[in-house]
Design a protein that fits this description.
alpha+beta, C-type_lectin-like, 3 helices, about 210 residues, rod-shaped, two-stranded antiparallel sheet, 10 strands, about 15% helix, 8-stranded mixed β-sheet
């Protein structure tokens, strides 16, 4: 039995339509049974004592143009992380430390963010990586995901197809090289190769991170 409404009116004021919704033998003439209760199974009403404890449903007036308040939703976990530039399902972000080798920064992108060094497949992503290098104070080079594999083919560290390139002038110049995004500080940017395990000139790296990981 569920109480949907408590009413101060007596049962004598019920009209004929309302009487058809009351249970057999109701409304009651017993003194004190001045409130109505609806049966959760049959849907029929019966008069009950107003002091009886039961569930209830409240009705509040609505005002045109004033929608009911809603609880603000937490931002989705896939929102663009601070300090990153997002494009599609990925965020591009500078790696915090500076690394002595390409292998170290690639491992850092994987361990820290479950990502890889940035792979570039279109002009939009190229522009994003260039902007990160220009905006961040990590020198004029930062490792990206391009390198030569054991068969001397250029590949991306995430395994995606090498279907785009923007080599710096006279590049590539070697076959045991890894690539950085290079800025000559005169408006010319492109991919410049260095030895992958070069120890004497540390570079930052630009990681490509699946949204929700950073």
């Amino acid at each position: 039995m569920s109480c949907l409404e408590r009413s101060s009116m007596g049962t004598t004021g019920l009209d004929e339509a309302t009487r058809t919704m009351t249970a057999s033998g109701k409304p009651s003439t017993v003194s004190g049974n001045d409130c109505l209760m609806v049966d959760s199974v049959t849907g029929l009403w019966s008069a009950r004592n107003c002091n009886e404890i039961a569930m209830h449903v409240c009705e509040t007036p609505s005002e045109p143009g004033n929608p009911p308040p809603t609880t603000p939703l937490a931002p989705p976990s896939s929102s663009c992380p601070s300090g990153a530039i997002c494009h599609g399902a990925y965020a591009s972000k500078i790696a915090d430390p500076v690394f002595l080798t390409w292998q170290l920064v690639e491992k850092w992108c994987q361990d820290r963010w479950k990502g890889h060094l940035a792979s570039i497949h279109d002009d939009t992503t190229e522009a994003i990586v260039e902007k990160i290098l220009i905006d961040e104070s990590f020198g004029n080079s930062a490792w990206i995901g391009a390198r030569y594999d054991a068969s001397l083919k250029p590949v991306w560290s995430d395994g995606s197809k090498m279907d785009y390139h923007k080599f710096y002038k006279r590049e590539p110049i070697g076959r045991t090289q890894c690539f950085t995004m290079y800025n000559n500080n005169n408006g010319l940017l492109g991919w410049k190769s260095f030895a992958c395990d070069m120890q004497f000139l540390p570079f930052a790296g630009i990681c490509e991170i699946p949204l929700g990981q950073a």
